[in-house]
């Protein structure tokens, strides 16, 4: 056997052994208090299972498919038998450990011939699912059946309907691609639902700042209004309220960056540095406010957020995003950049995510990335100003002044990076 092939064989066997070892560490730690010999599979057993799968996979060219199948069935039968005996002794009906052991064997076998990146990713996912069992059950318990049902319906609709949706524009303005529109909608709804789950999991007793951070993953505008209400009613004082609203703004800008990274890399290359500067400035301002504030943030997050995967919410966002894309295309064709920017400013007052994704769609259909970046920056600026007005209306002058101070600093930082730094780094990013 050539030396290079032999080295690769040992490397793949090491990966198979490593996957079994990782799973075995988690399984062994969980049952660390059990007496020796009372567990069917712990650290050593899972490591051996992974290695066994690797050896079986390596023997495939020698023993053939039938031999490999017979060896696999023999292993599965022996492993399941011992797990059944363990379950009967413990009166435990859980099948997780059995499936985990069989998957370790399968990954070990696949590691010999497949893509090691897939093996590593699946192995890490398996360990994560096993390790975070209690946490997963906790957040699942805090979701209502209505919320879970909505999420399942949307995901099912995506899996079933997405392949059937036409992957071409269908409107007279050559702007709306149904498959692309649905994917962009699910992208935002999925990110928002993750934030919504965070809010539900954290609960209402984590304080104003933590509640604002979690809630801003769903809607920073709602957070700004709710924190302002708390300030006005005395549930929170202005300094911590300003810190909370400013932190929500930082996370909102971070959402825009994340959406651009997924949906519009060309726009991110143009505007990413300025947006990052704004997000960092907002976060720093929130830290400064909280650092100089001597009172404890004991208020409730106070948010009454609607599930972003509710069918009505998703439908509304589809209509909003589709409308913005169509109007944006019409305006850009009629008036060029001069018309697109005022439109982005107006639409940004309502929803910066929709404008961001609309710009991404337009860039994908021929709009210059620089123009799309300008539209996103204008939308973010107008959305920031709109939240400042909301802060004044809900929380009063001091609360709004703190937020506007942070917004001004973030705007100056973004402008400085946009006009001074971006022209210098843009050529390097394009290489």
SSE order, one letter for each helix or strand: HHHHHHHHHHHHHHHHH
Rg, please?
A: 27 Å
Helix proportion range: over 70%
* Outline type: globular
**Mean pLDDT, all residues:** 79
Number of strands: 0
Count of the separate structural domains: 2
Number of helices: 17
Describe the structure.
This protein has helices at residues 3-30, 43-58, 60-90, 96-110, 116-131, 133-141, 145-161, 178-202, 208-215, 220-233, 238-263, 265-292, 311-335, 337-348, 352-364, 369-395, 397-430. With 431 residues, it is mostly helical. The protein folds into 2 domains: 3-131, no CATH class; 140-430, no CATH class. The longest helix has 34 residues, at 397-430. The two termini are 42 Å apart. Residues 297-302 have low confidence and may be disordered.
List the main descriptive attributes of the protein structure presented here:
single chain; 431 residues; mainly alpha; 2 domains; 17 helices; globular
Lay out the secondary structure.
Blueprint: H1 3-30, H2 43-58, H3 60-90, H4 96-110, H5 116-131, H6 133-141, H7 145-161, H8 178-202, H9 208-215, H10 220-233, H11 238-263, H12 265-292, H13 311-335, H14 337-348, H15 352-364, H16 369-395, H17 397-430
């Amino acid at each position: 056997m050539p030396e290079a092939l032999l080295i690769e064989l040992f490397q793949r066997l090491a990966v198979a052994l490593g996957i079994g070892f990782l799973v075995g560490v988690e399984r062994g730690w969980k049952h660390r208090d059990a007496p020796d010999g009372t567990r069917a599979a712990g650290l050593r057993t899972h490591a051996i299972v992974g290695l066994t799968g690797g050896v079986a996979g390596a023997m495939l060219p020698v023993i053939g498919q039938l031999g490999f199948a017979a060896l696999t069935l023999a292993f599965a039968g022996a492993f399941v038998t011992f797990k059944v005996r363990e379950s009967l002794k413990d009166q435990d009906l859980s099948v997780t450990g059995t499936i985990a052991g069989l998957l370790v064997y399968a990954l070990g076998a696949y590691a010999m011939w497949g893509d090691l990146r897939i093996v590593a990713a699946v192995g890490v996912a398996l360990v994560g699912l096993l390790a975070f069992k209690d946490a997963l059950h906790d957040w699942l318990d805090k979701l209502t059946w209505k919320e879970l049902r909505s999420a399942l319906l949307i995901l099912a609709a995506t899996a079933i309907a997405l392949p059937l949706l036409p992957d071409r524009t269908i409107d007279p303005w050559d702007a709306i691609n149904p498959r692309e529109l649905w994917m962009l909608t699910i992208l935002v709804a999925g990110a928002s639902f993750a934030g919504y789950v965070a809010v539900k999991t954290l609960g209402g007793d984590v304080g104003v700042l933590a509640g604002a951070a979690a809630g801003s993953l769903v809607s920073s505008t709602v957070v700004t209004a709710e924190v302002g209400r708390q300030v006005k009613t005395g549930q929170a004082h202005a300094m911590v309220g300003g810190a909370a609203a400013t932190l929500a703004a930082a996370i909102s800008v971070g959402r825009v960056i994340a959406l651009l990274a997924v949906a519009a890399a060309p726009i991110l290359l143009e505007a990413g540095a300025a947006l990052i500067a704004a997000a960092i400035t907002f976060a720093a301002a929130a830290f400064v406010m909280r650092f100089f504030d001597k009172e404890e943030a004991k208020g409730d997050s106070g948010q009454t957020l609607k599930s972003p995967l509710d069918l009505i919410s998703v439908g509304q966002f589809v209509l909003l995003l589709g409308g913005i894309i169509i109007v944006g295309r019409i305006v850009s064709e009629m008036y060029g950049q001069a018309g697109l920017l005022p439109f982005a400013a107006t639409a940004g007052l309502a929803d910066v995510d929709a404008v961001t994704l609309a710009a991404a769609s337009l860039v994908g259909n021929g709009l210059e990335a620089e123009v799309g970046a300008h539209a996103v920056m204008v939308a973010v600026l107008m959305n920031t100003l709109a939240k400042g007005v909301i802060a004044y209306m809900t929380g009063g002058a001091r609360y709004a002044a703190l937020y506007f101070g942070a917004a001004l600093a973030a705007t100056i930082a973004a402008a400085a990076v946009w006009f001074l730094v971006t022209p210098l780094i843009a050529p390097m990013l394009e290489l």
